[in-house]
TrEMBL record:
PROSITE patterns: PROTEIN_KINASE_DOM (PS50011). It comes from the Eukaryota. Residues 78-170 form the Protein kinase domain. This is Protein kinase domain-containing protein. It holds the Pfam family Pkinase. InterPro entries: DEATH-like_dom_sf, IRE1/2-like, Kinase-like_dom_sf, Prot_kinase_dom. PANTHER family: IRE1-RELATED (PTHR13954), NON-SPECIFIC SERINE_THREONINE PROTEIN KINASE (PTHR13954:SF6). It comes from Orchesella dallaii.
Length: 170
C-alpha cells in the first residue's frame, strides 16, 4: 500500500501497534481519511487483492451502521463562529477540522428534521463518495439534539463558482 496512501513511516507506525489491533485500526483509518483520495485508493487496492468482504463493508450503503463514530471525539472539532452557510430547518454549515484536515460540518437539528431524511442523505453521500465532482463524505457524529455531517471543505461556494465561471466564459 505504498502507492500513495502510506509512506514507509506510516507502515512502521502501524507495525508498532501490532499488539493493539484496535489502536492499529484507528490509526489506519485516521491515516486513510487524511490522504487525498485515500478512500478511493484503498478501494482500488482491495479490488486488486480480491478483498471482497472488506470491499463490501466499505462500499455497500445498505450495510447498517451506527450514525456516530465514537472514536471521532478526539480528532474532530468545529467552530460555531465560522459559519459557511445556512439551509432549511435551521441547518448550518461550519468550518471544522478532522485531524489536520480542514472540513465542512453540516449541523442538522435532529428534533426538527426526520431521522429517515438524515439517514437517506448519508446513504446518498456515501454512494456518491467516489465521484470526483461530489463533495466527499467523511463521517457523522450525533451531539445533543444535532447530527453533524463531516464533509470535504470546498475552495468556494457553488454561487462563487458559478459567478467565477461566468467571468471566464464571456
Amino acid at each position: 500500500m505504498s502507492d500513495g496512501i502510506f509512506g514507509l513511516n506510516d507502515i512502521e507506525d502501524l507495525n508498532t501497534l501490532a499488539c493493539a489491533p484496535f489502536e492499529q485500526a484507528r490509526k489506519f483509518y485516521n491515516t486513510i481519511i487524511k490522504r487525498e483520495h485515500g478512500f478511493l485508493k484503498l478501494v482500488e487496492a482491495l479490488k486488486e487483492t480480491k478483498q471482497s468482504g472488506a470491499l463490501k463493508l466499505l462500499t455497500d450503503t445498505r450495510v447498517p451502521r451506527k450514525l456516530s463514530d465514537p472514536h471521532l471525539n478526539d480528532a474532530f472539532s468545529y467552530d460555531e463562529k465560522s459559519v459557511i452557510g445556512r439551509g432549511s430547518n435551521g441547518t448550518v454549515v461550519f468550518r471544522g477540522k478532522l485531524g489536520e484536515r480542514k472540513v465542512a460540518v453540516k449541523r442538522i437539528h435532529s428534533n426538527i428534521v426526520n431521522e429517515k431524511i438524515i439517514i437517506e442523505e448519508i446513504k446518498v453521500l456515501k454512494s456518491c463518495d467516489a465521484h470526483e465532482n461530489v463533495v466527499r463524505y467523511f463521517n457523522i457524529k450525533e451531539y445533543q439534539q444535532h447530527v453533524l455531517i463531516i464533509l470535504e471543505l470546498c475552495d468556494m461556494t457553488l454561487k462563487e463558482w458559478v459567478t467565477n465561471k461566468s467571468n471566464f466564459t464571456s
